């Protein structure tokens, strides 16, 4: 016994209503209604929005073989909206036992015939106060008389289908809204995280005032932030009109080559692109092999393994300083608007950091220049003070020993040397230390008489020509090889560095003014040499008075005659005294004291 119609209606309605997915709902409804009515095809037709019910598509079907499928087939019936829409809108249905016996319009028959329809039952599906679509029952094998109970039950099933469509559509809309909200929340979270990373990156970039450190930090931060294969900073050569430059910093994955210090020449860049970048425009290239990219440009990018790149200008002091280059080497890449925006912000902060570092370095340079100027002024003040002091003593005293003692004391204090002495050279080639100022702890060599052997004629000739003697470090390898005897002599005197200035009077070598550094090596400065060169030269020079020389000789211990037999003399020494590694100074012009 077949089930009661009401029971069958409930069963079919339940199966239809159990589906939430809209397409599953359509497929289930078509299958159940076709099985119930035993027809060749059941299909659901949906009108295109805003088409005036003149165009639509079949979205679902259930059919018997061998009848063709109507799925996704579009139907355009320009007279439907004018003749049938109002009737369907009022809830009426169409029922044709045979399409060829109801005086249908030829255009309508042609549409039905292309779908093999011979008899059909069409019931409207309403949604939100309008005609949503049609439930179509097709008999393809031949004409068919539709029974009243079939029509009645199908109308009720159509109502259940409408309810199910409305419910499924609402659920789909709610789900879409939920998904949209989740996506919006995800986008907001991503944006928050990016902004956090942006602030952190900007902070790390701005923490340094050293240019290379700023460059390296910026490249690392941007590459990690944007997840690119390489980020590099390119600096233009200011004199090249933007056609030449080089990469000054980068952060790159291990599998790709470094571009550091590589120079780039693009003869068309300055003419074609520099002004655009200066105006703030950027280049976002998804794939270098796109048709609009020139061959010469591709050649440049290929040598750096670039497949896609994002290039942001770095503008400093109203000039295009360089470029922030983001390279994707492994594959093409679509650059998102948000990525471009955040990278532009990083580039702006990088430009500010570079400008601040430049300003800081300029201040440091100015400070160094100022310090050097202050040092020169201080050195000049020391020179003036020393010269004035010695000149005053010369003017106020006629005693050579007082003048010489004051001179070596003043020089040692100004130079902060360990020992300063005046060495008198006598015509017979011997000599003696006739004045000395020495720090405690270092042996004195005052009144020591040195034989002729320690001061050979060629050495005297060098000093007589105005050449200086200079040793920065007696332990210097070149000194040990070239002047081993001198190194041994300096070691005995506990001298590690020395500066010797000849004292020349009437074109004759009178003596030597010598500064010793005993505790450490010392690089003698040019101003120190210049100062010592001035000291023995004055219009009232005491060194030109022969009576002082003879008086001083007679005052040596035991009336020494300054020869090698003196108990204080040093024998077996013979070595040059002039300078190394500095080149000899040419003959100098002395001012009379």
Quick recap:
The chain is α+β, with helices and mostly antiparallel strands. The protein is built from 17 helices and 18 strands.
Word description of this protein:
- By secondary structure, this protein is of the alpha+beta class.
- The protein has 17 helices and 18 strands.
- Strands 3-2-1-6-5-4 form a 6-stranded antiparallel sheet.
- A hairpin with a 2-residue loop joins strand 5 and strand 6.
- The longest helix is centred in the middle third of the chain and has 60 residues.
- The protein is rod-shaped, with a radius of gyration of 53 Å.
- The C terminus is likely disordered.
Bin the strand percentage.
Answer: 15-25%
Tell me the helix content. 40-55%
First-last Cα distance:
147 Å
- pLDDT averaged residue by residue: 80
List the uncertain runs: 537-593
Radius of gyration: 53 Å
Number of β-strand runs: 18
What's the total helix number? 17
Biggest sheet features: 6 strands, antiparallel
What structural class should be given to the helix and strand makeup? alpha+beta
What's the overall geometry? rod-shaped
**Strands of the biggest beta sheet: in what spatial order?**
3-2-1-6-5-4
């Amino acid at each position: 016994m077949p089930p009661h119609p009401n029971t069958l209606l409930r069963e079919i309605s339940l199966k239809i209503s159990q589906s939430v997915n809209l397409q599953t709902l359509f497929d289930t409804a078509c299958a159940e209604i076709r099985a119930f009515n035993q027809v060749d095809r059941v299909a659901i037709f949906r009108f295109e929005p805003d088409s005036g019910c003149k165009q639509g598509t079949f979205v679902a079907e259930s059919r018997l073989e061998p009848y063709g499928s109507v799925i996704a087939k579009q139907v355009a019936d320009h007279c439907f909206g004018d003749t049938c829409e109002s009737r369907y809108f009022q809830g009426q249905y169409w029922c044709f036992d045979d399409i060829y016996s109801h005086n249908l319009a030829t255009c309508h028959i042609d549409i039905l015939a292309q779908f093999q329809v011979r008899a059909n039952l069409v019931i409207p599906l309403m949604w939100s106060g309008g005609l949503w679509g049609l439930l179509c029952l097709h008999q393809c094998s031949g004409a068919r008389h539709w029974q009243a109970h079939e029509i009645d039950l199908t109308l009720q099933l159509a109502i259940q289908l409408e309810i199910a469509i409305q419910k499924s559509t609402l659920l789909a809309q709610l789900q879409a809204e939920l998904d949209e909200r989740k996506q919006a929340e995800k986008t907001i979270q991503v944006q928050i995280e990016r902004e956090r990373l942006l602030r952190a990156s900007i902070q790390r970039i701005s923490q340094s005032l050293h240019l290379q450190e700023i460059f390296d930090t910026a490249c690392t931060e941007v590459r990690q932030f944007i997840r690119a294969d390489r980020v590099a900073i390119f600096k233009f050569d200011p004199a090249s009109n933007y056609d030449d430059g080089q990469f000054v910093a980068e952060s790159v994955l291990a599998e790709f080559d470094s571009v550091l210090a590589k120079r780039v020449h693009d003869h068309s860049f300055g003419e074609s692109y520099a002004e655009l970048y200066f105006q703030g425009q950027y280049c976002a290239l998804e794939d270098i092999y796109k048709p609009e990219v020139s061959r010469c440009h591709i050649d440049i990018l290929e040598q750096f393994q670039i497949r896609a790149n994002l290039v942001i200008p770095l503008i400093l002091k109203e000039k295009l300083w360089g470029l922030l280059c983001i390279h994707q080497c492994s594959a093409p890449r679509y650059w998102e608007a948000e990525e471009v925006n955040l990278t532009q912000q990083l580039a702006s902060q990088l430009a500010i950091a570079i400008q601040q570092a430049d300003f800081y370095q300029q201040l440091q340079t100015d400070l160094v220049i100022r310090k050097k100027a202050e040092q020169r002024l201080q050195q000049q003040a020391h020179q003036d003070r020393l010269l004035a002091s010695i000149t005053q003593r010369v003017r106020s005293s006629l005693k050579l020993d007082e003048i010489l003692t004051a001179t070596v004391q003043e020089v040692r204090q100004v130079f902060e040397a360990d020992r300063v002495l005046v060495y008198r050279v006598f015509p017979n080639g011997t000599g003696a230390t006739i004045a000395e100022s020495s720090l405690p702890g270092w042996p004195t060599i005052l009144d020591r008489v040195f034989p002729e052997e320690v001061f050979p004629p060629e050495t005297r000739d060098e000093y007589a020509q105005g050449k200086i003697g200079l040793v920065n470090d007696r332990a210097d390898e070149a000194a040990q090889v070239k002047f081993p005897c001198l190194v041994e002599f300096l070691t005995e005197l506990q001298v590690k560095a020395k500066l010797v200035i000849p004292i020349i009077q009437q074109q004759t070598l009178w003596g030597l003014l010598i500064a010793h550094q005993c505790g450490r090596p010392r690089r003698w400065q040019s101003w120190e040499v210049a100062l010592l060169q001035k000291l023995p030269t004055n219009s009232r020079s005491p060194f030109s008075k022969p009576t002082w020389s003879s008086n001083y000789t007679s005052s040596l211990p035991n009336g020494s005659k300054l020869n090698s037999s003196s108990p204080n003399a040093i024998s077996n020494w013979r070595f040059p005294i002039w300078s190394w590694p500095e080149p000899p100074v040419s003959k100098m012009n002395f001012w009379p004291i």
